[in-house]
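Z., the sequence and structure:
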Amino acid sequence: MNYGLQKPYFSASYQVAPGKLANRPVEGKMPDEGQWYEDGVSYGRNTSINTYFYGEELTHVKKGETYTADAISANRHIGETHFADFHRYRLEWSVKKDDAYLRWFLDDEFVFEMLPETLAWTGAKMPDEPMHVLLNTAVSSTWGFPAPCPAGCACDCYDCGVDACNCAMPGGFCDMLPAHYEVDYVRVYQRPDEPTEKIGCSTDDRPTKRYIDGHKDR
């Protein structure tokens, strides 16, 4: 693992909630022995453990609704070509008994693997519920923005078009706008002889049709 990973990077991440409340790694530092994030993970070339995001506490007005979300992830260095040309990002996901895993690849090269024992620290299991694929462009002050806030900047707004707000943006960020995120294709493969791989939002072991029908307006 390369712990001196430089930006920019591609992050392969699995997030689970509720998470582990105690004995958590400290953000920006390697986990200590006995902390979760220790078993069942492996890394490919130019890939390192993501020490900058172990999850966070998601605070809600009602204290009983506040919970901790855990993140298990790895960062892989990428270069200029990843912003100018098409590349293949792949996730292999198996919940088959005795052969469950999540594996990430970049241009068919292995990046990161997570096994069920990784989740044992949080009391979770390998996800087997129906899910969907989401492709989007997201900009958040949580990722890559100046920290601490630059001197003389209030950092209470983020807007490239307003002088009082663009000081809070990362250097060179506003010069990249407008930007475009182009997707050439998305493909989903399933093994026809594997009963754990199913299609649809309401499967026989995860029936959700009644809920879906009752929330069509959401």
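Helices lie at 81-84, 116-119, 163-166, 209-214. The chain has a mean pLDDT of 84.

Let me know what you think.
H.
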